[in-house]
Design brief:
CATH topology: TIM Barrel
CATH class: Alpha Beta
Number of helices: 7
Bound molecules: zinc ion
CATH architecture: Alpha-Beta Barrel
Strand order of the largest sheet: 5-2-1-9-8
Order of helices and strands: HEHEEEHEHEEEHEHH
Number of domains: 1
Length: 261
């Protein structure tokens, strides 16, 4: 078993990096052109740990919700602080249950610090690996590792992916960037969980497309994960508000389909 550590990664906290992140978020590569007419809540899991594929998916299945799992194939079959990571069998089980497999990069690189060529090659390698692991469906969803990207890089993904998720908190309405959609993180910080809950409740009155993301789903979870009961509470809250709890691809198709009505 390969044990990877995630502590080695440190985001660039310089002033320049902060300004760049803000400019990147303001620079919309591909706007969502319609306003969601009802609320969509997409529960998503990054990297992704086996506990997300079993416990996380089971919690969604309890209310017939469909989620998305962004696979980093360089982590497949390994273990780190998030526990054991997914393998080929998880891809099959999730797909058969109606969940979506999205992409991360292959090496989980910081896309804001690598060259465009390196990022795109890493993305291609990840898709090739997913195919080799038996996942032969088109992969049209992507999540930026660490949420990091650059203004120049975002447009390059428009031909490859229908929607791309970031990690900055917020809801998505008309004008949101399909190449850097906002999302609410569930992690060790309970305030973040409450923030996500408030967003779900708010969207019941003001329709929006909401992404929730986390990593491992275990009682003794990592700093980036969540306890099963806390995830279940949000899933049931979303159900109780009447939100559509579908995959990102289903949500996007439904939102864009609204233009025809
Ligand atoms: Zn990740």
């Amino acid at each position: 078993m390969t044990v990877m550590t995630m502590t080695a990664y440190q985001p660039d906290r310089s002033l320049g990096a902060k300004v760049r992140r803000r400019l990147t978020r303001w620079s919309v590569a591909e706007p969502l052109r319609v306003q969601p007419k009802r609320s969509y809540v997409c529960f998503t899991f990054d990297d992704f740990p086996k506990s997300a594929a079993d416990t996380g998916a089971e919690i969604l299945d309890e209310v017939d919700a469909k989620g998305c799992f962004y696979a980093c194939t360089g982590m497949a079959g390994t273990s780190n602080q998030m526990g054991r990571l997914f393998d080929a069998e998880d891809l099959t089980v999730l797909r058969l249950a109606g969940h979506e497999i999205g992409a991360h990069t292959e090496s989980h690189l910081d896309c804001a610090r690598a060259s465009d060529e390196k990022v795109l090659a890493d993305i291609r390698q990840n898709l090739t690996n997913l195919d080799a692991m038996g996942h032969d469906l088109p992969v049209t969803q992507f999540a930026w590792p660490y949420g990091e990207t650059r203004t120049r890089l975002k447009p390059k993904l428009t031909e490859r992916f229908h929607a791309v998720r970031g990690v900055l908190a917020g809801t998505n309405r008309k004008g949101a960037d399909l190449m850097q959609l906002s999302a609410y993180e569930l992690d060790e910080n309970d305030a973040n969980i409450e923030r996500a809950a408030a967003a779900i409740e708010h969207a019941a009155r003001h329709p929006a497309w909401i992404f929730i993301f986390t990593h491992d789903v275990r009682e003794k979870h990592s700093a980036w994960g969540v306890a099963p009961d806390k995830l279940r509470r949000l899933v049931r809250l979303a159900r109780d508000t009447g939100a559509e709890m579908v995959t990102p691809s289903m949500a996007l198709a439904a939102i864009q389909g609204n233009t025809m009505s």
